[in-house]
Design goal:
alpha/beta; six-stranded mixed sheet; binds pyridoxal-5'-phosphate
Length: 483
């Protein structure tokens, strides 16, 4: 039987296939789609994957979640397009998710060698291909509306640029993105890609996306943010590759535990790690690394999920300036309230209405998430600068400020447990080229740019601008630019 998905909030557990959840994004009851029956990899599968190139591992793992919705040969062809050497030009020997050891047993896994220099390419490149395939066999068109705080925008645009039958309208806040990030989006403007600047912050832009979709005229707009199941499903494979590389490089054997430290805000990337673990990868801890917006750190350590004020604090790891961790709802459905969508809904509604919810209100221990293998730490601007310098001094490599939050937390844990020999892999979520100002602050200089990004700021394109909350202006732009 092929894999099926249900909404985290649906008491009837009505099942849908992969193609449906791919195109739909959020469920109509505002829940998120999760598998109904979780697949598992056998020891034989792991033995086979041990020597496979990343793309083949990806197709095996992702194929478990695509099921019969797309024929296997076509899944492989699409993965080859999504992760080609043209798109990952700096990859050595085809390894687009390589590990580097920084000090004994502490590794960084590079996930950001794709077209836009952030790990979001690892999922969105494939998502674009899958969506195109689904449309191709139906003759339909798809218009997607998204909001970005920086990296999702360019990654989604690079993935969907020029794809037939599809249009992408992307909202970005007037302030907050780096010049590099703006130039990346400007470079991709045109054809089926339309950028709109909102006079307001990211939350205001995100709210306009949600509000417009409540209008029946726009109910069918697709989603590219990580509420889309296909995104987190596509990310699980690099944990398997990371595990295999960490075991090989540390001289351990299959079955030995590995910890992953994940810079995250939306719980998306770390949930992809939870998926890998559910498939049977011997991961011990999944460690959430937050910046000053440490909602998830508090949640994991105290059991209380608490929103802070109306908006996130602006930090120098801006892609993690998030106070509402959408994908945490998937973790609720998987581990906290299994087979109990009513409790998921009640927990989430309490949070949405009051800005605060504790596990104890549901008769669960405060350390429930830690019992399920999660752990956490938090980092500050000063920590980021120090971790950038430390990594550069140790190994001569440059990490970006988000990865630096991860390295900070990984080092705190190693310092607290000096005899623990478990290998630790820290996910590197972006390239320093996107955040040169902070690199300069840390090192006194910015690392040399990869050739493909030299001079990108010449792409200065005027985005259309609308006021925050002006839904009729947004509606008109969507009508004018839909597929
Ligand atoms: C999006 C992003 C993150 C956070 O990803 P989650 O989906 O919240 O896990 C971290 N670092 C960078 C560079 C990003 O672009």
């Amino acid at each position: 039987m092929s894999i099926e998905y249900v909404s985290t909030r649906d008491p009837k557990q009505k099942p849908y296939d992969y193609n449906f959840v791919l195109m739909q994004g959020l469920a109509p009851d505002r829940g998120l789609y999760v598998p109904n029956n979780w697949p598992k990899l056998s020891e034989q599968d792991f033995t086979t994957m041990w020597n496979l190139p990343y793309i083949d591992t990806l197709v095996r793992v992702n194929g478990l979640f695509v099921g019969d919705s797309i024929p296997k040969e076509e899944q492989l062809a699409m993965a080859n397009l999504a992760f080609s050497s043209e798109k990952f030009p700096e990859a050595i020997k085809g390894n687009i998710v390589p590990l580097t050891e920084i000090e004994n047993g502490l590794f960084v896994q590079d996930l950001s060698g794709g077209p836009t220099a952030a790990f979001k390419d690892m999922a969105l490149q494939l998502l674009g291909q899958h969506m195109k395939h689904v449309l191709g066999s139906s003759g339909d068109t798809l218009t997607l509306l998204g909001a970005t705080s920086g990296d999702t925008g360019s990654a989604a645009e690079a993935a969907l640029k020029g794809l037939l039958g599809m249009a992408l309208i992307m909202l970005s806040p007037e302030k907050g993105m780096t010049e590099f990030q703006k130039a990346q989006m400007a470079q991709l403007s045109g054809d089926n890609i339309f950028n709109i600047s909102v006079r307001g912050d990211f939350d205001a832009a995100q709210k306009m996306v949600k509000d417009l979709k409540e209008d029946p005229e726009f109910a069918d707009l697709g989603a590219v943010n990580s509420i889309n199941w296909a995104r987190v499903a596509a990310q699980a494979a690099y944990y398997i590759s990371g595990y295999i590389q960490a075991i090989e490089m540390s001289g351990a054997k299959f079955g030995d535990p590995v910890d992953f430290v994940v810079p995250t805000g939306n719980f998306g990337n770390v949930f992809a790690g939870r998926i890998a673990k559910k498939l049977g990868v011997p991961i011990r801890n999944l460690v959430v690394a937050t910046n000053e917006n440490n909602v998830l750190h508090e949640l994991i350590q105290t059991g209380t999920y608490r929103k802070r004020g109306n908006r996130a604090i602006e930090t120098t790891s801006p892609s993690m300036d998030i106070t509402n961790a959408s994908n945490y709802e998937r973790e609720l459905a998987l581990d906290i309230f299994p087979d109990d969508p009513k409790s998921v809904r009640s927990y989430m509604e309490t949070f949405e209405q009051t800005g605060r919810v504790a596990l104890s209100e549901f008769h669960l221990a405060d350390d429930t998430l830690r019992k399920h293998g999660f752990d956490s730490g938090t980092s500050t601007h000063a920590d980021r600068l120090e971790s950038i310098r430390w990594t550069h001094t140790k190994r001569g490599i440059f990490i970006d400020p988000h990865t630096a939050d991860g390295i900070t937390v990984a080092r705190q844990r190693r310092f607290a447990n000096p005899t623990d020999r478990t290998p630790v892999v820290c996910m590197s979520t972006a390239r320093p080229v996107k955040f040169e100002e902070t690199m300069r602050e840390a090192l006194g200089f910015a690392p040399e740019r990869p050739r493909r990004f030299v001079g990108i700021e010449k792409h200065l394109f005027e985005f259309a601008t609308i006021d925050a909350g002006d839904l009729s202006a947004l509606a008109q732009h969507v009508r004018d630019h839909q597929a």
